[in-house]
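hey
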């Protein structure tokens, strides 16, 4: 039985016999070959989709949260706290519930997707909506943590990065080798930091013979790393990555540079196109932030960035059901008809 990322990768994680393992059996997510997408994009790239939306709370955050909450319990922390654009709060509140400790989540008022808010509420977190954006919520959370006995479980908590690096281990195991390229969204920049650390450790442990090129994508209206300056009022429909001052900024730049990759941006229009394309061609429903991986991949294919015959893994960080409002807003509504066989048959085009 799969026992979650701590048991599976125990020797590569900062845990000991004294660490109580708090797990929802996260990890072991699908790595789907995406040949329909390759055909559509007219590329010979071998594209794989790492579907992190298949984690227990519907996002990649669970890999990091199992380690962060387990360590918090080991250190007898009574309360975990985070600022969040949604997925961190969903994950933190679920793992805290399982650990029987309290969770507090600070979210930007009116700016997180419905599914994520419902998760934090149902798991019993103390949910506080901040009058401000994510960056404001993050700053005040850090201040609270320095004054009170709280463990912050954002990705500035190094245990989060440790857990999330297992995504890299898993991809290499599933593929049987290291991919040539990896594309992923960048928000607070913890995940690109974690993946790059994971690949380097796996290389150091001689599990893989080379390292991938790391390609990170921010949303155009929230692209501080690309612009080289803090964005005071970030703007994008991809609420998960609506972040103007990422905590792991330097580490993300480092991952891009060391791997000879890049950090670039994609527009909301490109994100929405990729969002629909992925759902229509591969049957994979992701949230908009995750579609920035595919939007970025598409942008680079158009620029002839990739040499022939290479492989690329796209990290799909969160499930589409997190943000149902966005899907409904983008697609035409269902037609409403009476329960009449003739009328329905005509609408389908059968008669
Ligand atoms: C679906 O939940 O920052 O670059 O507070 O939810 O590691 O921040 C979420 C980020 C990508 C960006 N995709 O990852 C939060 C939060 C999805 C996300 C990212 C997030 P990082």
């Amino acid at each position: 039985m799969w026992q979650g990322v701590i048991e599976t990768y125990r020797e590569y994680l900062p845990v000991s016999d004294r660490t109580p393992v708090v797990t929802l059996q996260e990890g072991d997510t699908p790595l789907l070959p995406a040949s329909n997408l390759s055909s559509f994009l007219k590329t010979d790239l071998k594209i794989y989709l790492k579907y992190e939306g298949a984690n227990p709370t519907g996002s990649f955050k669970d890999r990091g949260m199992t380690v962060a909450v387990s360590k918090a319990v080991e250190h007898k922390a009574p309360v975990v706290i985070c600022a969040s654009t949604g997925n961190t709060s969903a994950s933190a509140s679920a793992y805290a519930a399982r650990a029987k400790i309290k969770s507090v989540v600070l979210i930007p008022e009116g700016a997180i997707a419905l599914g994520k808010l419902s998760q934090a509420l149902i798991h019993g977190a103390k949910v506080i909506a901040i009058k401000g954006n994510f960056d404001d919520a993050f700053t005040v959370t850090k201040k609270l943590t320095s004054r009170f006995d709280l463990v912050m479980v954002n990705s500035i908590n190094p245990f989060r990065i440790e857990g999330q690096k297992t995504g890299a281990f898993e991809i290499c195991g599933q593929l049987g080798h290291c991919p040539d390229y990896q594309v992923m969204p960048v928000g607070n920049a913890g995940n690109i930091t974690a993946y790059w650390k994971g690949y380097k450790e796996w290389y150091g442990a001689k599990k893989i013979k080379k390292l991938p090129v790391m390609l990170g994508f921010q949303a155009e209206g929230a692209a501080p790393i690309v612009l080289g300056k803090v964005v005071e009022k970030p703007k994008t429909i991809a609420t998960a990555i609506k972040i103007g001052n990422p905590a792991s900024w330097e580490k993300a730049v480092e991952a891009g540079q060391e791997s000879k990759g890049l950090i670039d941006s994609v527009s909301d229009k490109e994100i929405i196109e990729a969002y629909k394309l992925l759902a229509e061609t591969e049957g994979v429903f992701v949230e908009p932030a995750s579609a920035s991986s595919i939007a970025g991949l598409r942008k680079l294919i158009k620029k002839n960035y990739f040499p022939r015959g290479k492989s690329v893994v796209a990290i799909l960080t969160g499930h589409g059901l997190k943000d149902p409002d966005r899907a409904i807003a983008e697609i035409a509504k269902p037609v409403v008809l009476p329960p009449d066989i003739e009328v329905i048959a005509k609408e389908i085009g059968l008669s």
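Strands lie at 31-33, 46-51, 79-83, 102-108, 126-130, 151-152, 181-185, 213-219, 262-266, 311-316. The pocket of AN7 is lined by residues 59, 84-88, 155, 185-191, 240-241, 287, 289-290, 317-318 (CB under 6 Å).
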